[in-house]
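About this split. The held-out portion is used to measure sequence recovery: a designer receives only the structure tokens and must propose an amino acid at every position. Recovery is the fraction of positions where the proposal matches the reference. Here is one held-out target exactly as it appears in the evaluation file.
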């Protein structure tokens, strides 16, 4: 029997979605999430993603200049710190990217209160059948991703799960469990 980890204490009492907050509110919250460190690469990666995902809401005259700012900022975050979060990824609130370097977060969605460490890859699992549309992973709320984690394909990592360092996830991860290994397996206690 797998041990279930209660990570509910990590979730804020403010239950509004990221879409319900203004860009300024989100960026201020992201700054606090990254321990109010302006030099935190994770903060800049998340803030740049927030800008890119909100450009369509800007007045039409501002969209082209904001697109240029986003392109430069996202390229700089990718090249300088090695953190890539595609604009199409739905990002929840209080996502904390702890370290920089070799981090690709190409998920369908990443929930609230997620902790991500360096060398994490989240993305599609390529198959020999190139005609099949590759589905992206879903990372639910309060998930903790260890360094070197790979989460690939149409899988969901359940709420409050802990994916330990250097684990490869190719199958569903139930809520509140710990997984480890290649491929990832639920570990007891």
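Reference sequence for scoring:
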């Amino acid at each position: 029997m797998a041990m279930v980890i209660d990570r509910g204490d990590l979730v804020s009492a403010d239950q509004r979605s990221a879409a319900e907050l203004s860009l300024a509110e989100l960026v201020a919250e992201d700054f606090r999430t990254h321990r109010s460190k302006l030099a935190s690469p994770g903060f800049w990666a998340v803030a740049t993603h927030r800008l890119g995902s909100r450009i369509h809401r800007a007045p039409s005259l501002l969209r082209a200049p904001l697109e240029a700012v986003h392109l430069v900022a996202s390229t700089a975050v990718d090249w300088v710190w090695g953190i890539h979060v595609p604009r199409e990824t739905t990002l929840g609130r209080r996502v904390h990217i702890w370290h920089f370097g070799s981090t690709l977060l190409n998920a369908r969605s990443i929930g609230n209160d997620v902790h991500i460490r360096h060398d994490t890859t989240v993305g599609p699992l390529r198959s020999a059948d190139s005609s099949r549309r590759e589905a992206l992973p879903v990372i639910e709320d309060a998930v903790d991703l260890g360094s070197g984690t790979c989460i690939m394909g149409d899988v969901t990592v359940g709420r409050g799960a802990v994916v330990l360092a250097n684990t490869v996830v190719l199958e569903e991860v139930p809520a509140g469990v710990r997984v480890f290994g290649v491929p990832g397996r639920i570990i007891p206690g």
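Annotator remark: The chain has three helices and 15 strands.
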